[in-house]
Amino acid sequence: MTELKFKRVLLKLGGESLAGPGGFGIDPREADAVAERIKGVSMMGVEMAIVIGAGNLWRGKQGYSGSMDRATADYMGMLATVMNALALMDALERKNVITRVQSAIEMRAVAEPYIRRRAIRHLEKGRVVVFGAGTGNPFFSTDTAAALRAVEIDAHVLIKATKVDGVYDSDPQNNPDAKKFDTLSYIDVLNRRLAVMDSTAVSLCMENKLPILVVNLWDPSALEKALSGEKVGTLVSMEG
Questions:
Q1: Alpha-carbon distance values, 140 to 14, 111, 133 (Å)
Q2: Burial class of residue 136 (count of CB atoms within 10 Å of its CB; 0-12, 13-18, 19+)
Q3: Cα 53–59–65 angle (5° rounding)?
Q4: How many CB atoms lie within 10 A of CB 207?
Q5: Could you give the CA distance from residue 179 to residue 42 in angstroms, rounded to a whole number?
Q6: Which of 12, 68, 183, 200 has its CA 20 to 30 A from that of 223?
Q7: 117 CB contacts (<8 Å, ≥6 apart)?
Q8: What is the pLDDT of residues 55-105, one digit of tens each?
Q9: Sequence-separated (6 or more) residues with CB below 8 Å from residue 240
Q10: How buried is 193 (Cβ within 10 angstroms: 0-12 exposed, 13-18 middle, 19+ buried)?
Q11: Which domains occur in the chain, in start order?
Q12: What letter does residue 77 receive in the DSSP assignment?
């Protein structure tokens, strides 16, 4: 078995990872592709927890920018993350990966309530745990939920899955001369306002010395290489 650099991992996925070509909704084929990558990591012996967003179904900003109450819009987004969590669970279990969904908002008919010690026990037993409903509170993003859950379960790294191969000083899709960073410090990310994760999430990781690794989820081997210690993506840490 490959020697692992990180044994317990929190993977942050955008809801768009489950969307079809139009960028909206849940495409079972996309969910299947994501599940295949997660299965490969799980088979390496990694203890895998996941936080997934809801950008493919609902963004709170869409609601409150159109005069909707902010808290109501955010709660709707939390419910949408549970839909994505269930879709991902279904895709994983069809690949014989035992999965548990835990929700920060209680809905016992479809998910376990979030209980930290139970989540850790699932991980120790080799189950993938998908955390839904964000932090359970409005005004906090799923990035912050990912950082919070990662710290709570004593994850060794928070992996932010994106569609590019790391963090750049500008959008590489619009600027062919964009510079990629192999490493960054938390302070650099905050001072440069780089679009890694929101500032609350980065600050929480910095306070708890939790490294953030930004990788391209659509590179079939990126996750495996990263967890084996190969230089992939961009690593954000105290030293940079």
A1: 15, 21, 11
A2: middle
A3: 155
A4: 11
A5: 32
A6: 200
A7: none
A8: 999 977 777 777 899 999 999 999 999 999 999 999 999 999 999 999 999
A9: 183, 184, 185, 186, 187, 188
A10: exposed
A11: 8-237 (3.40.1160.10)
A12: H
In 3D space, the residue among 54, 85, 232, 226 whose CA is nearest the CA of residue 157 turns out to be: 226
Token pair listed for 60: 């709170």
- Give pLDDT tens digits for 178-219: 999 999 999 999 999 998 899 999 999 999 999 999 999 888
CB atoms within 10 A of CB 72: 13
> Which DSSP letter does residue 3 get?
P
Partner residues linked to 161 by β-bridges: 215
Rounded distance between C-alpha atoms, residue 12 and residue 151, angstroms: 13
The residues, ordered by sequence, that sit 6+ positions from 132 with a Cβ below 8 Å of its Cβ are 52, 78, 81, 82, 84, 85, 86, 101, 102, 103, 104, 111
Phi-psi region of 141 (alpha: psi -120 to 50; beta: other; left: phi over 0): beta
Distance CA 8, CA 155 (A): 5
**Token pair in block for residue 130:** 């998908």
CA angle 150/90/160 to nearest 5° reads 30
The CA-atom distances, in angstroms, between 84 and each of 20, 24, 103, 208 are: 13, 12, 12, 28
Terminal C-alpha separation, the chain: 30
Name the nearest CA neighbour of 102 among 118, 91, 124. 118
